[in-house]
């Protein structure tokens, strides 16, 4: 077993089931599923497909946490600490991704496959600020960021549907409010909100609007607004890819 020193921990199905049960208990007490989805995305979304840097490795718990895009995500890591302490066998990187997929399922969304074995980065492996998207910018910026990860236009639109969960917070991003009527329930109503050009009491960021204004992205917005099954199918594929950026088991 010469490789053991560097090998990542692959968990058994029983170990994953036990951690999943504790995440479900957390969500019943504290419905923090949305911030877990954001945590997992911001850990993975730093990936650069050209040089393999960044990606799903829990580097977000070090200097990256101070990047403006990650404001508030220390709350998510704090909420996961008791689970990490009880189950030290899971890597932080795996725990962030598992918390996200269990959160989506708990909110009534699709079941997203989960593979364990991500390795935790050291503090030295953090990436520079600026790799995550800026909510005030339009489609070209979204493309720059997502193409760098190896994602395409369809995957950008599908992943943006995760805004059916949660809200923006004035003290974190400066924006305020939820994107949909029930921020704790999974659905495709985020896309209806975009098509409507915004609705009373609901948030629509410049980057959300950009999806509908872009010729190539608009057809996916229309498709997902009309067809929840199609959204879920494409979402699962794109999220699985996102959750494994930089991870090869
Ligand atoms: C929160 C940013 C999942 N996303 C969120 C906030 C902002 C953005 C609010 C943070 C806060 O104040 O608490 C400002 N929205 C953007 C940006 C763009 C945008 C930067 C585009 C350029 N988001 C997302 C993906 C995923 C999410 C790929 C998951 C797969 N984000 C997400 C959730 C929440 C935010 C679930 O990015 C709610 C968190 C594709 C909470 O409730 O705490 C949209 C995209 O459009 C860029």
TrEMBL record:
| Molecular functions per Gene Ontology | heme binding; peroxidase activity
Q: Which UniProt keywords apply?
A: Oxidoreductase
Q: Which GO terms describe its biological process?
A: cellular response to oxidative stress; hydrogen peroxide catabolic process; response to reactive oxygen species
Per the database record, which ranges form the Plant heme peroxidase family profile domain?
90-249
Q: Which domain of life is it from?
A: Eukaryota
Instruction: Write down a Pfam family by its short name.
Output: peroxidase
Read off the InterPro entries from this record.
Ccp1-like, Haem_peroxidase, Haem_peroxidase_sf, Peroxidase_I
The record's section on SUPFAM superfamilies has: Heme-dependent peroxidases
Of which family is this protein a member? Belongs to the peroxidase family.
Q: What protein name applies here?
A: Plant heme peroxidase family profile domain-containing protein
The scientific name of the source species is Cafeteria roenbergensis
